[in-house]
Design a protein that fits this description.
Structural class: mainly alpha
Number of helices: 7
Order of helices and strands: HHHHEEHEHHE
Strand order of the largest sheet: 1-2
Shape: elongated
Radius of gyration: 55 Å
Distance between the termini: 164 Å
Strand content: 5-15%
Helix content: over 70%
Number of strands: 4
């Protein structure tokens, strides 16, 4: 059997394998660098996503809180407006109750004052001498020490003349007061007689009753949607006393259901002029003035027909 011996040179293959090993090392270095870059990119992406998620969450929570605040503020404003309206209604009711109380109190005060005066007169008439002594004589007895001049029962001759001068001076003073009182009384009587002669008519005629018209301002207000009306009555307080004012107010209040109101399409020119002056002199904004003027133009007035109460 033939035998063949060959000698194979492995240096080129070893050289090539050395090159492959070098490339493998470069590839390993590139892979490690790429892995590091990938890890860093993933970390940055995760941080970016977490930041956006947190920002969106906080934005959502803030939006929800703002919506709740707006809704609650709207509810509070509505409740506040309702409370203000109720306060106005309660104030109107309070004013009406105070007015009714004052009217009833004045009426009962006048009644009880009359009853007290009548009872006092009757009690005095039960025992007139005792009442006169208690009311009149006791005061005279109590004032004797200040009204009469004190005299000393036992006095020397020098002091007696001085005491007599004092008594005479006191008598003269009292006489002067009496004369002055009589003079004033006669003067007043004379002036009253002259005034009576000037007022009274010299000839008598048939006296007829006259009707006196008293101007009264009736203001009816409506503050709410429940049609609860409040009526204020105003009249001239400088010309009439409290009794006449109460009588006129009671008469107008009792005749409130019988008052006939007539619709009027246009307000009086004097009212328009006065309203324009008040609106021009006001310090409010132009928008408020325009709204007030618009409400005034669109309002319908009602006036009372000519009638007597």
């Amino acid at each position: 059997m033939a035998r063949f011996d060959f000698t194979v040179d492995t240096n080129p293959m070893a050289h090539e394998l050395g090159g492959v090993s070098h490339k493998v090392q470069e590839t390993t270095t590139a892979v490690v660098a790429m892995k590091t870059a990938v890890v860093l990119a993933e970390e940055q992406a995760a941080s970016h996503v977490c930041g956006n998620v947190n920002k969106g969450f906080y934005t959502l929570i803030r939006s929800q809180i703002s919506q709740k605040i707006a809704r609650l503020k709207s509810d509070v404003d509505s409740h506040l407006m309702r409370l203000v309206q109720q306060r106005k209604q309660l104030e109107a009711i309070q004013k009406r109750m105070e007015r009714d109380y004052n009217m009833i109190a004045a009426r009962y005060k006048k009644l009880f004052d009359g009853l007290n005066a009548n009872l006092e007169q009757r009690v005095f008439e039960l025992d007139r001498p005792a009442v006169d002594f208690a009311v009149k004589e006791i005061d005279k007895v109590s004032n004797r020490t200040t009204s009469l001049t004190a005299t000393v029962p036992v006095a020397q001759l020098e002091s007696l003349a001085v005491s007599q001068h004092i008594i005479a001076s006191n008598v003269k003073n009292r006489g002067s007061k009496v004369i002055g009182s009589m003079t004033g009384f006669l003067t007043d009587m004379y002036e009253q007689k002259k005034l009576t002669n000037r007022i009274l008519l010299s000839t008598y005629s048939n006296v007829q009753s006259k009707r006196l018209s008293v101007p009264v301002l009736i203001c009816e207000c409506n503050f709410d949607k429940f049609d609860q009306k409040t009526t204020d009555i105003t009249l001239n307080r400088s010309q009439w006393n409290q009794a006449v004012q109460s009588l006129v107010k009671n008469t107008v209040t009792d005749a409130g259901d019988r008052l006939q109101w007539n619709s009027k399409q246009e307000a009086n020119r004097e009212i328009k002029s006065e309203f324009s002056k008040l609106l021009a002199s006001s310090n409010v904004s132009t928008r408020v003035k325009e709204a007030a003027n618009k409400l005034f133009q669109s309002n319908h007035f009602q006036t009372l027909s000519s009638q007597s109460l």
